[in-house]
Write a structure and sequence with these properties.
heterodimer; A: 256 residues; mainly alpha; two-stranded antiparallel sheet; 9 helices; 62% helix; 2% strand; B: 149 residues; 61% helix; disordered N terminus
Amino acid sequence: MTCAYDIAISNLFPLSRFFDKAAIVVPSSGEESAASRISRRLCTVSQVEELKMLLRMFPVWASMVIFYAVAEQASSTFIEQGMVMDNRVGAFTVSPASLTTFNTITIIVGIPIWHALAPLAGRVTGHDQGLSQLQRLGVGLALSVAAMAYAALLEARRLAAASAAGGQPIMSTMWQAPAFAVLGGAEVFTTAGVLEFFYDQSQRRIKSLGASVAHHTIAAGRYLYMAVLGAVAAATARGCWAGWIPEDIVRESERD
Amino acid sequence: MESSPAFRPLAPTNLTVPTDPVERVNKGSFWNWFLFSISLGSLLSSTVLVWVQDNIGWGVGFAIPMAFAVLGLAVFVAGRKVYRYKKLEGSPLTRVWWLRLQGTTVRRCRMMHQPCMRCHHQVTSIARLGIPVNSGTTRFRQRNSTFLN
């Protein structure tokens, strides 16, 4: 006597007892037949375990939300920073938003490189994909930390240079290119990794839901970024001083 | 050039045999190349297409992505004999919400949790308390609709 979906009952998850109740038939005094009661109102044990599996992925979801909150800076605050830097490169004038192509180009170049290097990494870690799924997400998170550290140092240098030059943009926009590139490298690991993780770890019947949750990390990360930005700006504004994220960032910003 | 979110779960479903070594490698690299093609599409649309729109015209600028979308659809339909099809079983979201709802409305019952690897053992142990349990497929449900003592 076996289940069609053979999922082990788990009571390690803290809310196990709460969700397991959905699979218990409660004797009631209603007039419905037992069969109709079972089919309409109850959940099967498999379904309970599916939900528990989905909820167990919450820590990974949370850390990826943080990553995408950070990565969103490539589309917003980095560009603001680029707007007050010197955007002449040789004979061309580079618009600040064009620098996001460094992000995309790094992804396009990085994926074949990673594809070639993965077997070598696999010899070290023992995984056939090179890195385990969680290791891959960790590498992406570490790269995003490096990118943000570089951006903070760059902002400090830019502020010092701009103050010394009386408000004129001195540093070249191309100094931002490494930050974009490292974030692109981080996305090679995390974006593909998070899609793979949530799809792979979801139970067979809820794989589409798992893939949607992976996309949801991107959306939630962007909302979190907006909330953090608003909170920092509101919390640090005092009186007539605009705070850490003012309109005129050439001289006044403390965004680093 | 960019796939819509609706297509995304469909593609890896066709690579869901984790024990087959060839498919496992393919499945692992699927998401890499998925991200690659999305990024390539994004790069081309923000460079080549922008140039086309500025210098040739908006009509051509819209016609090119339309042509690629039609091409993508044609490739997708052409491969229909190769795909694995899954039986439709309703939305997983409704199941998740039903589960939460039932968790809050069923009164507390004492359950014996015995750790084991097959769910029917759990069902049997619960059923020994005289509590009937809904535990899976129709076949299983019929066998457990009576109390097992």
